Amino acid sequence: MKSDILSQDVIAAWQTSNRVTEYLFENLPDQLWEKKIPGYPRRTIRMIAGHIHNARCTWIKMIGAHYSIKPPDPIDRRRTNRTTLLSALAKSNKAMTKLLEAGLQQKGLLTINVPWSNIPPDVVHFMAYMVAHEAHHRGQIVLLARELGHGLPSDITNGLWQWKRRRLESSK
User: Fold this and answer.
1) Which of 87, 136, 150, 156 is the most buried (most CB within 10 A)?
2) Number of domains within the chain
3) What is the extent of the structural domain holding 78?
4) Where would I find the H helices in 106-159?
5) Is the pLDDT of residue 56 over 70?
6) For the whole model, what pTM was predicted?
7) The domain spanning residue 99 has which CATH number?
8) In 2-81, which ranges are continuous DSSP H helix?
């Protein structure tokens, strides 16, 4: 019983984090997608956005094979747009959820056979790592928007912290 509740909570926390990521990209102003990152003239905010989905795909590919979970296709970080990204995030969210569920059914252990991985091989640490990774990039985008003179409205930045609301949205 206790592990069933934990499993549900792990999945719910992932779904909420995913919804926060979606929320940012649903509301990111169009003019910001093309903005170049100071100090990295060949990188744009669009590329950071695409990286989030592609990183999910990489982990799903590496770990998901153990559970027969096929990763979604990566996207072109240089050309992605809001519609393509949101569609891709929905697919990688679905696959990530399957991966977490499969790991939880194995009593919480995932097989992470990646030589450079510093993640402990349990589902909770893996999920926390993925949440932290995406939160890092969300914060990076908010900071870059400010630095580039296009600070996001407070309803967007505050919305990133409305986890109760995002949780309700993710369960619909």
Assistant:
1) 156
2) 1
3) 2-170
4) 123-147, 154-159
5) yes
6) 0.93
7) 1.20.120.450
8) 2-27, 45-64
